[in-house]
Design the sequence.
């Protein structure tokens, strides 16, 4: 199923009723009502209540868009900044270090811990020093 593969790829719960588990998780994090419109919530509720397996490509696309929206809203700030800022900073620092003669600096871009470290450092940097 398209939705299950999307959810399991992004670390969301998998199982018999994936959408119901995602709904519970979104409610607990306070995202369900804040992020989704009334129509999107109704669409998800009806899909969970009526459909056992999504066969319609149109319905799958609609539900996939809603699920992506929920998963993005539930993503932690550190994970988001690691993806957006940490990897870019790691590439810049790696390039600088390689220009200075550090041949092993090429591995820095592939290290998720280094990207996370840079993201946390970015989070803790005062806004007046950010460019």
Sequence:
């Amino acid at each position: 199923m398209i939705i299950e593969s999307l959810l399991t790829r992004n670390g969301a719960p998998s199982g018999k009723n994936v959408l119901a588990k995602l709904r519970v998780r979104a409610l607990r994090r306070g995202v369900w009502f804040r992020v989704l419109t009334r129509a999107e919530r109704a669409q998800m509720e009806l899909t969970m209540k009526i459909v056992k397996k999504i066969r319609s490509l149109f319905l799958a696309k609609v539900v996939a868009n809603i699920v992506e929206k929920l998963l993005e809203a539930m993503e932690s700030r550190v994970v988001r900044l690691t993806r957006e800022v940490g990897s870019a900073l790691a590439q810049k620092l790696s390039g600088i270090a390689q220009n200075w003669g550090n041949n092993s600096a090429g591995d820095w871009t592939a290290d998720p811990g280094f990207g996370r470290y840079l993201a946390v450092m970015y989070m803790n940097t005062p806004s007046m020093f950010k460019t």
Remarks:
- Helices lie at 2-9, 18-28, 32-35, 38-50, 57-74, 77-99, 112-123.
- The chain has seven helices and no strands.
- The mean pLDDT is 86.
- The radius of gyration is 20 Å.
